[in-house]
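Sample 3 of the quickstart, ligand flavin-adenine dinucleotide:
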Amino acid sequence: MGFDTIVCVKQVPDTGNITGDAMKPDGTVNRAALPAIFNPEDLHALEAALDLRDRFGGTVTAVTMGPGGACEVLRECLYRGADRVILISDRRAAASDTLATSYILSQAVRKIGRYDLVFCGRQAIDGDTAQVGPQMAEKLGIPQITYYEKLVDLSGQTIRVRRNVGNGWEILEGRLPILVTVVDTANKPRPPAAKRVMRFKRARSVGEVGGQVGKDMPQASDAQKQAQAARLFEAVRAAGMVIEQWDLDDIKADLTWCGMAGSPTKVHRVQSIVLTKEGFTSVPPTAEGVAKMVHELIVDHTLG
Amino acid sequence: MIEPNRKGEVWLFAEQEDGHLSDTSLELCGKARELADTLGVKVGAVLVGWNVRELSYLLIAHGVDNVYYVHDTRLEYYRTQPYARAACQLIARDKPQIVLYGATPIGRDLAPRIASEIRAGLTADCTDLQIGDYTDPKTKKEYCHLLHQIRPAFGGNIIATIVNHDRWPQMATVREGVMRMGEGDPSRSGQILEEKIEFNDFDMAIKLIERHREARKVNLKAARIIVAGGGAVGSKANFKLIHDLAGVLGAAVGASRAAIDSGFIGKEHQVGQTGTTVRPALYIACGISGAIQHRAGMEESAKIVAINWDKDAPIFGVAHYGIVGDINKIIPMMIKSIRERG
Ligand SMILES: Cc1cc2nc3c(=O)[nH]c(=O)nc-3n(C[C@H](O)[C@H](O)[C@H](O)COP(=O)(O)OP(=O)(O)OC[C@H]3O[C@@H](n4cnc5c(N)ncnc54)[C@H](O)[C@@H]3O)c2cc1C
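Result:
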């Protein structure tokens, strides 16, 4: 037996550690100034999938959509135990909102073909929308269970899951295939395994190999570069170190559903948060100062 | 795909559990009313459940004109697919121009499923909604009276305004507690329209096996006064200081995430972007730095008192009264002077 799972992961800017130079003077975010990290809840989704495979057998395939640099999170998936990793990368996918993103990811899932479960993190810290998971489920025509916290039972094609709904929990039952979004209380993600790090740190995508050749042989002709890239990538393949890379044509995406054209929501305006320093009543840190403030709050009916 | 319909109503999804409307639903009623008045259209509410017809009157009292009441024994408890089916069918039929949902666990599960099915845009977790215009930067085409969907992004470090001009309805989930809940006017009148929806087996694919709800022990949102403690409190034992001040004021106790992560107090007390958004008459921040994620949840409070020994702490940027000093000295002084006045 065993179950084949697909995990959707995302590389995100570390919005928890935003410093001064992360904001450009025009108020937009300078993504380049922020460290890129593995979206935290996606690590919990990966762990849920790996745990399932450890217990029941099967495979774990990790998929991400992003620029070439997103291969970093796919290598992280390999270090932790993923069997196969796929990068969806295409300039025409830029500026996709959650609806377009969920379409593109669902096309990737269709291309992968056989699967029993799709795991997503509940939400990504750069947008906090929690929309891609449910939208993918709808696009794939399968049920969704959001806020997965615990696997209660899995036998045959029937799954029981406990989900955390904020003011309580519930147990839902459904039949596979199904899409699940995972919250951070679900599990403790395993660290990268040292042996796997040694093995997979040389895993590469076609794009990464091409980029490296371009850097190493700046004087060479395009034909020479291509030949060298092909040679190197063949070596990566022979070693079983491939990060598969698909574009929108590979996943047979309808371009009117992707990128800007496929995104109903448009950003109208972006403002950075500036502290409003209008000034406040400074209260001396003394018994008299505090008493005077309390008195004022009583007089204006804030207290009592 | 649904084309823009300028005559469409402003709708909200009326979330109910166990026969109680969520606070957010009532907050949405007020906002929807305001938007609909600006646009000159009616407010509709989609109410889904079993035996909850009487909730319609509460919705009407809070500003709804038409309640679309979908009832069926199988809808007693929320499940994504049948609720989404009901909403999608009504949206496709009536073409509202705006549909709002609470950014609650249910709203955030339901709204994206609906958005995907009808291929509409959806903006998550809005903190403000306004009617405004938009010029497409490429085509220079102007669009009037669109819904400006305003939300923090990037961990609260920027505020983005999102519009959706070609594929309607314009949909948004709205953060809990940020819109003001009106008083409600029981003399308002409105219509209740009973709707029958056909469900198929796939809609009912997920079964609810067991369900457990905890009454929310702390009701920060309803509190008139909140005393909140931060990382500076230092220990669970020392949090007694915060409880004591709250005690003499009859206030609820809030906390920053640093205080929660350090185990001083439970997560249900967290104020901020990933906690509760509050707007009490008085918010007393004790030893809280005022990180942007914390301020996002409390800066709308009518009065803010900040106590922090660092005169440059960002919390002072939103404070009305600022005390630069040690909380361990200041709080006992406050308790004493409140008791004396009491
Ligand atoms: C995605 C994300 C979401 C987040 N969501 C939230 C959220 O919802 N709510 C939230 O609160 N935070 C949230 N945070 C965390 C937030 O960034 C801050 O880390 C947190 O608010 C800090 O809490 P604090 O100010 O109490 O603690 P600290 O940063 O430890 O600050 C303590 C403050 O107390 C002062 N102080 C110390 N000792 C004393 C004393 N004896 N007397 C007086 N003053 C003293 C210090 O000067 C300092 O200003 C979030 C972060 C991220 C990345």
